[in-house]
Amino acid sequence: MAQGTQKRNDIVRKERQRVLRKKRIRKRRLIKLCIYASMLLGVVLLIGGMSKMLVAQQLTEAKESEPGNVIVLDEEVLIKPTAEPEALVEDDLHPTVRPILVNKENPLPEDYEVELISLPDGRGKAAEEAYEPLCEMLHAGTEEGLQFLVCSSYRSKERQEELFDEDLKALLRNGYTYAEAYEEVAKETMPPGCSEHSTGLAFDIVALDYQMLDKGQEKTEENKWLRKHCAEYGFILRYPKDKEDITGISYESWHFRYVGKEVAEYIMEEGITLEEYLEKLDNTY
Ligand SMILES: [Zn+2]
């Protein structure tokens, strides 16, 4: 019995010693780990400090050596930007916005539909999307002491036909052949179905005290203001000077077309026509 107890005690003692040994080993490992971690931290701080000192020293040297405070640093010390500056892409073009093109080659689709709103003066109508921008633009100009008259806005195809025929007949009466008369009228009046006015997005705007659609219009303060500010409201000067070969229409300082602000700003800044804008869009996307 006593022998059995002795044996059990030995086993218990040995087990305790084993556990203690394990604990000691673990403790030693933990201490070692702490020491390594401290050493690593020290090295990191040391390197950081040295780099700062180096940069500061270089800055001082550069300041001293370069007159006019031009700071030159060694390339290695300079922190280089991680990315190249953003490349200038043609992101001012707006592929999702494609204003409708209506000209002699591109008549309005037969099924084209437009929601119209009567203008405040009750004498004309505008497409729903152009109504507010038009009112805002004219209001802003009026605040500057200007007085405008929208002398032409939405025009149905039928009305366009009447206008075209009236001009045609006048020339025919004056001895023009039909072909000559047609060509002449088409320089200033779009054939039926080819007028932007049938979209409700185009407006002829003149000065109240100068209502002539001629070269004198661009000299009015109203016209100067419109040409300068129209893009802010989404409008472009649709038939600019020296672009007759592209638009097929003589310079009209009074004809403004709504295309939306982004596109208008691009077109007016670049000094291009809607035709050129759309061509650019097709070539880019
Ligand atoms: Zn017009």
Task: Explain the overall architecture.
This protein is an alpha+beta fold and 285 residues long. Among the domains are: 2-69; 116-155 and 195-284, 2-Layer Sandwich (Muramoyl-pentapeptide Carboxypeptidase, domain 2). It is 50% helix and 10% strand. It has eight helices and six strands. The protein has helices at 2-65, 128-143, 157-173, 178-188, 221-229, 244-247, 261-270, 274-284; strands at 116-118, 125-127, 148-152, 202-207, 235-239, 252-258. Strands 3-4-6-5 form a four-stranded antiparallel sheet. It has a two-stranded antiparallel ribbon with strand order 1-2. A hairpin with a 6-residue loop joins strand 1 (116-118) and strand 2 (125-127). The longest helix is centred in the N-terminal third of the chain and has 64 residues, at 2-65. The radius of gyration is 40 Å and the shape is rod-shaped. The termini are far apart. Mean pLDDT is 81; it is low at 54-89. The structure holds zinc ion. Residues 152, 197, 202, 204, 255 line the site of zinc ion. The site of zinc ion (ZN) has 5 residues, from strand 4.
What keyword list fits this structure?
binds zinc ion, 8 helices, Muramoyl-pentapeptide Carboxypeptidase, domain 2, 285 residues, two-stranded antiparallel ribbon
Explain briefly what this protein structure is.
50% of the residues lie in helices and 10% in strands. The protein is built from eight helices and six strands.
Unreliably modeled segments: 54-89
Q: Can you list the strand order of the major beta sheet?
A: 3-4-6-5
Largest sheet: 4 strands, antiparallel
* Whole-angstrom Rg: 40 Å
Chemical compounds bound to the protein: zinc ion
Assess the beta-strand content as a share of residues. 5-15%
Look at the structure and give the mean pLDDT.
Answer: 81
The level of helicity is 40-55%
